[in-house]
Design goal:
The structure holds two protein chains of two kinds. Chain A has a single domain, classed as TIM Barrel. In chain A, 38% of the residues lie in helices and 23% in strands. Chain A has helices spanning 32-42, 58-72, 86-95, 104-108, 111-120, 154-164, 185-194, 208-216, 227-230, 236-245, and strands at 5-13, 16-17, 47-51, 77-80, 99-102, 125-133, 139-143, 148-153, 168-173, 199-202, 222-225. Chain B has one domain (4-194): Class I glutamine amidotransferase (GATase) domain (Rossmann fold). Chain B is 25% helix and 30% strand. In chain B, the strands form two sheets. In chain B, strands 1, 2, 3, 4, 5, 6, 7, 10, 11, 12 and 13 form an eleven-stranded mixed beta sheet that branches. A two-stranded antiparallel ribbon of chain B has the order 8-9. In chain B, strand 5 and strand 6 (93-94) form a beta hairpin. Chain B is globular, with a radius of gyration of 15 Å. Chain B starts with a strand and ends in a 5-residue tail after the last helix. Classes of the chains: A alpha/beta, B alpha/beta. The A-B interface holds A 1-5, 40, 45, 70-72, 74-76, 93-96, 98, 120-124, 167-168, 193, 196-199, 219, 221-222, 251 and B 12, 15-16, 19-20, 22-23, 48-50, 108-109, 112-122, 139, 141, 143-145, 159-160, 179, 181-185, 187-188.
């Protein structure tokens, strides 16, 4: 039976992780390759690396980093953050990334999704959407880390994006991100029901029961989190045991 | 002279296979030269991409005939498995016909089935040398929208909407729908098993 996936997310700046992890003694707290290997040992199902480097120069560092990660890691990983062009996607996939996620590039020019899917196959292309609700409770896509609103309704946008070729949706609720109060269950369920591709839920994980809810109620196929994993607050093995005990299929 | 040949064609993802082989302490050549392929002790046919353009590419270079005539152990991965079959629904493509089974697309409408099939799923009904030391219900990583139906050549089955062939074997031809190079320890074991199969 297909397992629900647990996906830690690592922020990368200039080829280094922004934070280390607290659950293991690592020699180099900022080395993404060491962190990635540690997460794989812990039972992470996939990894996401989010590049938050501001400068253009940092981009080639990212390709080198992807190459190093790919040589060591035996589970799939996705790279995202500031990916703007087909050439950039090609470089990252050729360097060994399994999937690439795009956000603002697709908002600015949705046809890029068609082009990417045609060149590389839809299974390599993840659409990342950062969402917030308006006063009426309707969710809209935001750019720049959830700061700049667009006119795109989340549900319309994810439908359009998957029609154009996105093979997976990574939906982050910016209203829940960092709060540790749980994932945004209703909108995540709506996204999951709106598209026929897998959906990765993100934003708000604080306790093991939040993951249970997002799988059981919101019907997410995967859940992404960062600090609860980095700071050892929810060890992946005990999270998976908890989920399994509650009837959620997980890889153990 | 390298003993492992990875077939070079227009369907990507060779990097992960090369890295996985490195992690096993093996080197391979990546080639579309018929002689080099024929002389290898093991041949790997990986693939991520689209069936019709891959078959066109193989036919243009005569690789379809080269592959079909190989006598050493050959392993098809993902699209590689699909191209080993008879016909694929993906753009109505005639494939290599090594396995007598057709490739169909998962039905996305059916009870909320998500397509592509992405993630870790279990292997059942394991048979043959590829799966030595691999327990029933082991998890491996899948990412695909098309699949081979269960048939007499299936040596592993997985359930997604319906049971399908996760692995095929006939004579010296082996194929896996999942990505052993991305399936952690179990994937490593399966790849290693393939590289222990003697001519």
């Amino acid at each position: 039976m297909l397992a629900k996936r647990i996906i830690p997310c690592l922020d990368i700046k200039d080829g280094q992780t922004v934070k280390g992890i607290q659950f293991e003694n690592l020699r180099h707290a900022g080395d993404p390759v060491e962190l990635a290997a540690a997460y794989a040992r812990q039972g992470a199902d996939e990894l996401v690396f989010l590049d938050i480097t501001a400068t253009h120069e940092g981009r080639s560092t990212l390709v080198d980093l992807v190459r190093r990660i790919a040589s060591v890691l035996d589970i799939p990983f996705t790279v995202g953050g500031g990916i703007q062009s087909i050439a950039a996607v090609e470089a990252l996939l050729q360097a060994g990334a399994d999937k690439v996620s795009v956000n603002s590039a697709a908002v600015r020019r949705p046809a890029i999704l068609n082009e990417l899917a045609k060149s590389f196959g839809n299974q390599c292309i993840v659409l990342a959407v950062d969402g917030r609700p308006n006063e009426e409770g309707e969710w809209f896509a935001y750019l720049n880390g959830g700061r700049i609103p667009t006119e795109l309704r989340v549900l319309d946008w994810v439908r359009e994006a998957t029609d154009r070729g996105a093979g997976e949706i990574l939906f982050t609720s910016m209203a829940h991100d960092g709060t540790k109060g749980g994932f945004a269950l209703e909108i995540t369920q709506a996204v999951s029901e709106a598209v026929s591709v897998p959906v990765i839920a993100s934003g708000g994980a604080g306790e093991a029961c939040h993951f249970l809810d997002v799988f059981r109620e919101a019907k997410a196929d995967a859940a992404l989190a960062a600090s609860v994993f980095h700071f050892g607050e929810i060890p992946i093995p005990s999270l998976k045991n908890y989920l399994s005990n509650h009837g959620i299929p997980v890889r153990k | 002279m390298s003993k492992i040949a990875i077939i070079k064609y227009n369907a990507g993802n060779v990097q992960s296979v090369l890295h996985a082989l490195e992690r096993l302490g093996k080197t391979a050549i990546w080639t579309d030269d018929p002689k080099e392929i024929q002389q290898a002790e093991w041949v790997i046919f990986p693939g991520v991409g689209e069936a019709s353009s891959a078959m066109r590419h193989l036919r243009e270079r005569g690789l379809d005939e080269v592959i079909g005539a190989l006598h050493q152990p050959v392993l098809g991965i993902c699209l590689g498995l699909q191209l080993f079959c008879r016909h694929s629904e993906e753009n109505d493509t005639e494939c290599l016909g090594i396995f007598d089974v057709n490739i169909r697309k998962f039905n996305a409408g059916a009870e909320g089935l998500k397509v592509p099939h992405i993630g870790w799923n279990t292997l059942q009904d394991l048979r043959g040398p590829l799966f030595e030391g691999v327990p029933e219900s082991s998890y491996v990583y899948f990412v695909h929208s098309y699949f081979a139906e269960k048939n007499k050549d299936a040596v592993a089955t997985t359930e997604y909407g319906e049971p399908f062939a996760a692995a095929l074997q006939r004579d010296n031809f082996y194929a896996v729908q999942f990505h052993p190079e991305k399936s952690g320890e179990m994937g490593r074991r399966i790849l290693n098993n393939f590289l222990k199969i003697k001519h």
